[in-house]
């Protein structure tokens, strides 16, 4: 097995992809809207990926956050709210917001597990600050670290109950970034004391099964390298200060925050201390270059992957409609008029 999570080109595996994936044996896969047509097609695709690898616990990832980040959309799948919906409810009822976030994530997990998807890249633990780029924006669970951690914990629990593994992102925090790392490299000049706010939600959820790094430079931590490529950030901050010992994957290798060849990027990710290289585009030439730069997954990373995938324990008694109804009843509190 190689330390790669790879994308694919369309709604079904091509012969070239099938041969390549058999040869490379990536640790897992990630799906996007280009890979999705309808529920029957998606179930067939995820079953094909599992059959190809022979692994029932194969990580098949998706970014299904709710709001503007949703790969599965109507008419085949319902709309889910963004993180900000639970932040607003928290102002009225913290306990209600936590329960609503848990029910929402449980519904997400049940929906995804039914499709054969095993990992959702959620929750965001980023704490936005005034003046930051809107790439996080309404995706955030709040603007205060304790609130973000409380809601994030509920999301992880709900996903696991629904049968899906959660991923905390973007460690050690994307909330201060003044640019979109899909397009350019953000540089954060906050002090160590200021960055404590960004780290706090990740510290409180250090036992999360998986985490995704931020393609962001933090000058107080490592002025020369973004977190994804920084041994200092990964070893000293993520592993030691935060205390995260779960599976650590990079954000997408194809984002413009990173420079150099795809082979150089992949090697840099692993050299810095990430367990898994994430490459999303499904471009065969790029994937071949990435695969040529890596060796077999390390024993420690393999153990972290196995532990992470064991977190999701779907409860057959849970029902999607019940979770959605409970979520909606709680979120409705935000729109109730104040008593006279």
UniProtKB/TrEMBL annotation:
<dbReference type="GO" id="GO:0009254">
    <property type="term" value="P:peptidoglycan turnover"/>
</dbReference>
<dbReference type="InterPro" id="IPR019800">
    <property type="entry name" value="Glyco_hydro_3_AS"/>
</dbReference>
<dbReference type="GO" id="GO:0005975">
    <property type="term" value="P:carbohydrate metabolic process"/>
</dbReference>
<keyword id="KW-0378">Hydrolase</keyword>
<feature type="domain" description="Glycoside hydrolase family 3 N-terminal">
    <location>
        <begin position="21"/>
        <end position="298"/>
    </location>
</feature>
<keyword id="KW-0326">Glycosidase</keyword>
<dbReference type="GO" id="GO:0004563">
    <property type="term" value="F:beta-N-acetylhexosaminidase activity"/>
</dbReference>
<dbReference type="InterPro" id="IPR050226">
    <property type="entry name" value="NagZ_Beta-hexosaminidase"/>
</dbReference>
<dbReference type="Pfam" id="PF00933">
    <property type="entry name" value="Glyco_hydro_3"/>
</dbReference>
<protein>
    <recommendedName>
        <fullName>beta-N-acetylhexosaminidase</fullName>
        <ecNumber>3.2.1.52</ecNumber>
    </recommendedName>
</protein>
<dbReference type="InterPro" id="IPR001764">
    <property type="entry name" value="Glyco_hydro_3_N"/>
</dbReference>
<comment type="similarity">
    <text>Belongs to the glycosyl hydrolase 3 family.</text>
</comment>
<dbReference type="InterPro" id="IPR017853">
    <property type="entry name" value="GH"/>
</dbReference>
<dbReference type="InterPro" id="IPR036962">
    <property type="entry name" value="Glyco_hydro_3_N_sf"/>
</dbReference>
């Amino acid at each position: 097995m190689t330390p790669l999570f790879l994308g694919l080109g369309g709604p079904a595996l091509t012969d070239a992809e099938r041969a390549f994936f058999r040869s490379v044996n990536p640790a897992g896969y990630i799906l996007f809207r280009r890979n999705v047509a309808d529920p029957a097609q998606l179930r067939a695709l995820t079953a094909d990926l599992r059959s190809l690898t022979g692994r029932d616990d194969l990580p098949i990832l998706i970014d299904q956050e709710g709001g503007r980040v949703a790969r599965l959309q109507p008419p085949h799948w319902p709309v889910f709210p963004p993180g900000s919906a639970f932040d607003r409810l928290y102002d009225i009822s913290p306990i209600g917001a936590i329960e609503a976030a848990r029910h929402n994530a449980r519904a997400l997990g049940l929906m995804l597990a039914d499709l054969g998807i095993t990992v959702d890249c959620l929750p965001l633990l980023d704490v936005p600050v005034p003046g930051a780029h809107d790439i996080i924006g309404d995706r955030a669970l709040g603007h205060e670290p304790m609130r973000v951690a409380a809601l994030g914990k509920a999301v992880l629990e709900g996903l696991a109950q629904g049968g899906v593994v959660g991923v905390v992102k973007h460690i050690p925090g994307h909330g201060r970034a003044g640019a979109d790392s899909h397009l350019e490299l953000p540089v954060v000049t906050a002090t160590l004391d200021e960055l404590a706010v960004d780290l706090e939600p990740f510290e409180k959820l250090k036992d999360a099964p998986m985490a995704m790094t931020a393609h962001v430079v933090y000058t107080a931590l490592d002025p020369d390298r973004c977190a994804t490529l920084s041994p200092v950030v990964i070893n000293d901050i993520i592993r030691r200060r935060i205390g995260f010992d779960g599976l650590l994957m990079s954000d997408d290798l194809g984002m413009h925050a990173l420079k150099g060849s795809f082979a150089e990027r992949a090697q840099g990710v692993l050299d810095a201390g990430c367990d898994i290289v994430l490459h999303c585009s499904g471009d065969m030439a790029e994937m071949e270059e990435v695969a040529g730069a890596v060796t077999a997954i390390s024993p420690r990373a393999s153990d972290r992957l196995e532990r992470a995938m064991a977190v999701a324990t779907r409860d057959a008694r849970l029902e999607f409609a019940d979770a959605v109804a409970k979520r909606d009843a709680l979120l409705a509190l935000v729109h109730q008029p104040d008593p006279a």
